[in-house]
Structure formats: C-alpha cells, structure tokens
Amino acid sequence: MSPTPCSVYPSLMPDGGWVCSCALFEANLLLSPVHQDTSGVDLESGALSLKSYLKGQIQLRKQWVKDNFDCFVSCKNTIDSILVCPNGEYKVCLSSASEVYNIV
User: What are the residue boundaries of the Exocyst complex component EXOC2/Sec5 N-terminal domain, all occurrences included (predicted)?
Assistant: First the structure.
C-alpha cells in the first residue's frame, strides 16, 4: 500500500510559513518544495536550531509540570472523591451539585 500523497502549501497566517497536510508524514515531501533553494549548510544549521528549540520546549514543559504538580494532585484527588465510592467502585457517588461544590 503506497502512502497518501502530501499537500504542501503556503500558510494563510500573518507570520507566513508552510502547511503540510497528509495522512502519513514524510519529511522529504515537505522539505523538497519548501527548501528547494536552501543550501545544505543552511539546512544543517536549521536542523541544529530546531533540535535546540525542541529541547528547550521539553525543559519548559517539565518545569511547568513541576510548578503545577500540587494542582495536578489536587485535581486527581477531587476526581477520585467524586468517582470512588466507599466500597471502592468507580462511579459518581454524590447526590447533588452542592456536594461536588463542597469537595472542590
């Protein structure tokens, strides 16, 4: 079965860029029309910049999770208190909206 062809076209967003639409992403199909006049040196430099940017985003996401961990735990506990009945079954065990409000 051959992969679905990709469509690559300029973005309509104000900042420009390109949009790639395909069921199975293939980098070569995106890079060919977008970077057909880009030198190999520039492509390598761009790849390094992209890797650095992505590593930075991972670090930011990790820090965001650390900064908001208490909130995540509180949300989990609230959901558990709504869904876990005293007998250990998972279902909504509260009889009114006011009970939910009191938990939150």
Answer: 23-83
